[in-house]
Design goal:
Blueprint (H helix, E strand, L loop, with lengths): L15 H19 L12 E6 L5 H12 L3 E6 L11 H9 L4 E5 L3 H10 L4 E3 L7 H15 L6 E5 L5 H13 L2 E5 L8 H14 L3 E4 L2 H5 L4 E4 L11 H8 L6 H4 L6 E4 L11 H4 L6 H19 L2
Parallel strand pairs: 1-2, 1-3, 3-4, 5-6, 5-8, 6-7, 8-9
Helix pairs in contact: 1-5, 1-6, 1-12, 2-12, 3-4, 5-6, 5-12, 6-7
């Protein structure tokens, strides 16, 4: 399957077959890594630019290491390191960087910025997180579920917390393409992006996936194969903190809630606000796979770079 030269802005731009291919390639990358192939020279001499407007641990480090393990080099460029800080347009920045590097990973505050970079870039632009979506996180999550559960089709994933979350938007897009049943437990006021949800529901008709909503966390979690949560207050939402904590306090994932899903794995994209959306006994407990999940970002992003960068 040829994906060379493609942007990865949202998973809604990819077919079910393409999403599965990336996930399975991530698993193969991990298998090769643990078989001793720590360097897979598929991108020798390439350079990947990481253009980050927001701070990062997992996305930055995993992409930098992924590039290195593929034989490429990486160049970290904070927003203030570029002329963007002095008013140069994203279009001109994209045109310029395209002459120097072979791929761009962008982590931005507003989604339109990564769209603009892709519009004017002649090399692949990969969304490393925006306020709308986080596609590379969702790809790593699907890889983790496949690794831990042995399948994706028919898996029941319960997302508990902020239903307007950018990670959830991408999880829904990925799950709908892979036959995963998603049930979201969140306040009625917090719902996924309308366009992403509309697309997911349409794709789900073919894959057999379902997407449901409830305001009852225990109903969502009961019998789930995966229990997933994310922080209640994302970067840039500090002004909404008091209101979101008030709305979401009944949606904490704790040991009592996890009793309803004794066979489930617990997932969190991290960083976690321990004591808010999740308690220590869950994130550090026997059902938690969050550290494997974090590692799998590295391997699936190797797949993304290897498949997309010419």
């Amino acid at each position: 399957m040829r994906l060379k030269g493609r942007h990865l802005i949202e998973l809604t731009d990819y077919s079910p077959e393409e999403v599965r291919f990336i996930v399975e390639t991530g698993l193969e990358m991990k298998r090769r890594f643990y078989a001793g192939e720590r360097i897979v020279e598929v991108l020798p001499g390439r350079t990947i630019a990481l253009v980050f407007e927001k701070p990062s641990t997992r996305t930055r480090v995993s992409f930098e290491v992924a590039a290195r393990q593929l034989g490429a080099s990486s160049l970290y460029l904070g927003w203030n390191d570029l002329q963007l800080a002095r008013g140069e347009t994203l279009a001109d920045t994209a045109r310029t960087l395209s002459r120097y590097v072979d791929g761009i990973v962008a982590r931005v505050k507003e989604h339109w910025k990564v769209v603009e970079l892709a519009k004017y870039s002649s090399v692949p632009v990969i969304n490393g997180l925006s306020d709308l979506s986080h596609p590379v996180q969702a790809l790593g999550d699907m890889m983790t579920i496949l690794e831990k559960k042995g399948r994706l089709a028919g898996i029941r994933l319960a997302f508990v917390g902020d239903g307007s979350d950018n990670v959830l938007n991408s999880l829904i897009a990925a799950a709908s393409r892979l036959g995963v049943h998603v049930i979201v437990a969140s306040p009625r006021q917090l719902r996924p992006d309308e366009e992403i949800l509309k697309n997911a529901l349409e794709v789900a008709k073919e894959s057999g996936a379902t997407i449901e909503f409830t305001e009852d966390p225990r109903e969502a979690v009961s019998g789930a194969d995966v229990v997933y949560t994310d922080v209640w207050v994302s970067m840039g939402q500090e002004a909404l903190r008091e209101e979101k904590v008030r709305l979401l306090s009944p949606y904490q994932v704790n040991s009592k809630l996890m009793e309803a899903a004794p066979k489930a794995i617990f997932m969190h994209c991290l960083p976690a606000k321990r004591g808010e959306e999740v308690t220590d006994e869950v994130i550090d407990g026997p059902q938690s796979v969050v550290w494997d999940q974090a590692e799998n970002r590295l391997h699936v992003q190797k797949a993304v770079l290897a498949l997309l960068v010419p």
